């Protein structure tokens, strides 16, 4: 019997049979190698890899956007001047209507916005979205940005340059907020 197994023709037939049963027999069973290597499953797996790659790429983009707000040298201090009222606070996915002013530390108003709609997690204005989380209706929050802040965000850099003292205070008042119907929001 051992002599028969040493025969190259028998070895070749054995390998062919093993490959046939591994790849082509019982391809309907979800765990079979033949099913896993079918063209449909390969396309599905490649699609999943593509989707996961896009997800990772979008998270990298979000991280880069967040890093543009300010680098590690940033000195941004946030304090609630008025807590606000109600049982609920702004969280990820909420649509908020805010008013805000950009002031120098000595109180000179650089810009003022009476009513702006912000969807937290939309990444349309990451700085404002990030800084209104936790606020309650009618609350006011002051965000102080010191003059030694190094920011890749052009808007913040320009406003810091406009300030005589080099520091800024952003005063945000939460006018109202509600849950958003938007999808694909991320507040990470």
Strand order within the widest sheet? 1-4-5-2-3
Classification by helices and strands: alpha+beta
The rounded Rg comes to: 30 Å
CATH architecture annotation name of the largest domain: Roll
Number of strands: 5
CATH top-level class of the largest domain? Alpha Beta
Please outline the major beta sheet. 5 strands, antiparallel
CATH topology of the largest domain: Chitinase A, domain 3
Question: Number of helical runs?
Answer: 6
Distance between the termini: 66 Å
Number of domains: 2
Helix content: 25-40%
Give the strand content: 25-35%
**What would you call the shape?**
elongated
Characterization of this structure:
It is a single chain. The protein folds into two domains: 11-67; 71-179, Chitinase A, domain 3. The chain is 38% helix and 25% strand. The model has no long low-confidence stretch (mean pLDDT 79). 14% of the residues are buried. The protein is built from six helices and five strands. The chain has helices at 2-5, 8-23, 33-36, 39-69, 126-132, 154-162; strands at 76-82, 94-104, 109-119, 140-145, 168-179. Strands 1-4-5-2-3 form a five-stranded antiparallel beta sheet. It is an alpha+beta fold and 188 residues long. Strand 2 and strand 3 form a beta hairpin.
